[in-house]
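> run fold Sigma-70 family RNA polymerase sigma factor
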Amino acid sequence: MVGAPTPASTEAREALRDAMVRLAEGDSTALEQIYSATRVKLYGICFRILGDTKEAEDALQDVYVNLWQRADRYDPDRASPISWLATFARNRAIDRLRTGKVRGGAVPVEEAVPLPDAAPLADQLMIDGERAARVHTCLEALEEPARTNIRSAFFDGSTYAELAEDADVPLGTMKSWIRRGMMKLRTCLETGE
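> ok
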């Protein structure tokens, strides 16, 4: 492995961000991509708040209709697309509770309020960005094969067994490489060296 591939979650986030921007520019095909990528998560949020399958489906429909009309309000520099959409879905579901559009079976609006806002605060984004940069700097300081295998295991989701097979080494050797690399990574993160 020459370089670590981009993690699938990063690729998915970038594809969703791109689709949101395209939708704001009037590309109707982007809505289908957004729907496919987010419908399960957003339905779960609506169902958790409303407590009823039909109500959650209605709220989810409201989310996508409103998204189509208001996609230009999404700012990719302020929030990840899924955080913005999750907040949007939460607000749509709570609006249904408040306006009384809900049939029986829904939870009271007071129970929906404690759901955490998925959008991180600006200072938390900055701290997270600094931490991520520090992790990557410390990873770069590691020697091979630890660096590549740690990236594959923790960013790409490869198992130790898969990594051992790919490197043609015993499983115990792979575990040792990663464990020693993680100890060096920890020292680097704690001491800044």
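The first helix runs from residue 8 to 24.
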